[in-house]
Amino acid sequence: RSRILVSIGESFGTSDKFQKINEMVSSSDWSLKRSFDQGSTPKPLKRL
Amino acid sequence: AQECQNLEVERQRRLERIKQKQSQLQELILQQIAFKKLVQRNRQVEQQTKRPPPPNSVIHLPFIIVNTSKKTVIDCSISNDKFEYLFNFDNMFEIHDDIEVLKRMGMACGLEVGKCSPEDLKIARSLVPKALEPYVTEMAQGSISNVYISGV
Amino acid sequence: RYKSLQKEVSDLGEAEEKLDELISKSNLQLKLLTEDPQNKKLGYVMCQDLRSTVNPPEQIVMVVRAPPETQMQVSDPSEGYQISLKSSRGPIDVFLCPED
């Protein structure tokens, strides 16, 4: 599955490098899915 | 006919590259104008108030912002040395970098959307070197599209 | 037709060279601009500036200030909305923008 890696910490770079990330996040219906199958306990959050 | 065909392909290729480079130059011009305008604004405010703002109320560049709904639950894990963070959200979020924030603050004089008033255009042209002025004028009416912009 | 194509391709070549020159000059100007100590000091925004750029304004706004080359990874939302930050050149600063 896709995951997006970007480098941050520098001033000004390529224009709108977060556009792809925002599109990926907003296009998903993960929160909707979770609200539907409310019964299933949410997956344990990954820890550092 | 074959040589015309080859030249046609080469012409198309150069037009594509010029289009990509024009949008790269456009972004650089926007960043230059936005940063200069931000510095100008802060300098004016500090001169009016005769002092710099409290240190904990300013956010220096570079930065990024992550914004999400107020209802979102954010689970955050941090390593002891603060070199690593892990955030888990239970809702969508958006990420924007500093230049995107400056554009939304109006620091790019509306050039990023091709809507620039005559006064703003005058300010924007004054913030770039002479060689870039024709590009700023083009950007004020939309994006740079003319392939042969006569430089100054 | 061959002659006119030849002329147009050569003109495009010149236009492209001019663009290359302007891009490298603009990159240099931007670098000098952002590295100037005086500009570094004045290159800041206020919390209310950030608030004015999000819609609706009463959202949670988290600010991340990281050293150069910090890696940010955003996982595929099907695994959950997750962002990880990993720095190799210093601590990362994260704080929430106050609402008022």
UniProtKB/TrEMBL annotation, chain B:
Name of this chain's protein: Transcription factor
Covered residues, full protein: 199 to 350 of 405
Domain Transcription factor DP C-terminal: 2-146
Transmembrane segments: none
Coiled-coil blocks: none
Cellular location(s): Nucleus
Family: Belongs to the E2F/DP family.
